[in-house]
Amino acid sequence: MDWSDEKRHLILLQEKLNSYIFYIDTKQYKEYLGGLGEDAANIKTIEIKISFLFKEPDICGQLIDRAKEVLNNIFDNVIVIYEHGSKDNDL
């Protein structure tokens, strides 16, 4: 999805981040890992990786930086990895 509809894209990104927070906060990953035969007690760090195909506007980085702050205040074992897009939006 390119950034031609910036407002919609930012709303979708915010909803996705909120879903990640809910998933981690409710510890749903323990159920998932248990189904794989893994012990969730061995989890030391949870990574959230956000990657973009298209060059994102500055406001997107601000939203992710704010999400990182919130996550760091709520959880002590969550890392957000943010990969910038490289394609131009006018393709």
Q: Your description of this structure?
A:
- By secondary structure, this protein is an alpha+beta fold.
- The chain has one domain (6-83).
- 49% of the residues lie in helices and 13% in strands.
- The protein has three helices and two strands; from the N terminus they run H-H-E-H-E.
- It has helices at 6-25, 28-35, 58-74, and strands at 46-51, 78-83.
- Strands 1-2 form a two-stranded parallel sheet.
- Strand 1 (46-51), helix 3 (58-74) and strand 2 form a beta-alpha-beta unit.
- Helix 1 runs parallel beside helix 3.
Unreliably modeled segments: none
Helix content class: 40-55%
Between the first and last Cα atoms, what is the distance in angstroms?
Answer: 11 Å
Number of helical segments with 4 or more residues: 3
Short précis:
The protein has 91 residues and is of the alpha+beta class. Helices cover 49% and strands 13% of the residues. It has one domain (6-83).
Structural features:
two-stranded parallel ribbon, alpha+beta, 91 residues
Secondary structure elements and pairings:
Layout (H helix, E strand, L loop, with lengths): L5 H20 L2 H8 L10 E6 L6 H17 L3 E6 L8
Parallel strand pairs: 1-2
Helix pairs in contact: 1-3
